[in-house]
Amino acid sequence: MNTASGQAKPTYDTSRIIGVVLPDDGTDLDLIRALRDEKNVIASTAITCRGIGILESVGDAVKGKLPPSELVRLVTVIVPDSEAKDLFEFIYEKANIGREAGGGVWMGMPISATRYTLPSGVPDERMRTRHDDE
Amino acid sequence: MSERNITYLTDVYLITCVVDHGKGEDVVKAARGAGAGGALIHSGHGVGIRERLGLLGIAIETEKDVVQMMVGSEQAEMVANLIYATAGLDRPGAGFIYLTPLETVATYLPRDIRERLRERTA
After folding, report:
1. Residue A134 covered by a domain
2. Chain A 101-120, residues with CB within 8 Å of chain B CB atoms
3. Tell me, what's the ipTM?
4. Which chain B residues have a beta carbon less than 8 Å from that of A88?
5. Which CATH class is domain B10-121?
6. Taking the model in full, what pTM does it have?
7. Extents of the domains making up chain B
8. Residues with Cβ < 8 Å from A127, sequence gap 6 or more?
9. pLDDT, tens digit, 9 for 90 and up, residues A31-81
10. B76 in A contact zone (CB under 8 Å)
11. CA-CA distance, B84 to B19, in Å (whole number)?
């Protein structure tokens, strides 16, 4: 949208932010692909983090030191408010969060976010899969 | 979709703390001392007060540690206060901390914790 001065003005939608912590086993790429292909959600990012787990730390921690950290991926997705609950459950199922050491998923309160769109007529780029490195 | 029986956790805050590179582990240690559990640490580049201190206007890129952790609402303020004191966030340029209320959290819960939660909510 443009204002009278010609400067682009954002349009904000009521949205939710969903964060997903996943093991570094390629699940993040599978999840992002599934969100794009099955739910048409394209506003997602993935970053690499050092994760310090809750459960493993209890017995293994040396006093005064942190338990060893492991590589994890943090996927952040912005979703429309109306679809948030459905997408939260979709992510839980697709990323298999319910398994041991499967990570976790959280959803924030409603936020305002601009809608992310892609130019039309541009073919989808092939996404990497967890099998590409094998 | 919900056949798997997801356990939803509520009253949770996401604490995010941005500190100098290398200080992230100290933040996590302090938080764990106050009862927080797991944490994520990742790197980021800040452009803040130190940029103005660059020689002849040359910007100094500041590498930061970003620490994120989820804690229960009843613990959140205590954990945040402890992090604030431990990381010396009252010093200019040391970093900052913010709390984000979360609506829902879901993760793997061992059977005994699930049962304890069920007993508490029953």
Report:
1. no
2. 101-109
3. 0.81
4. 104, 106
5. alpha beta
6. 0.84
7. 10-121
8. A29, A32, A33, A36
9. 999 999 999 999 999 999 999 887 655 555 566 778 888 999 999 999 999
10. no
11. 10
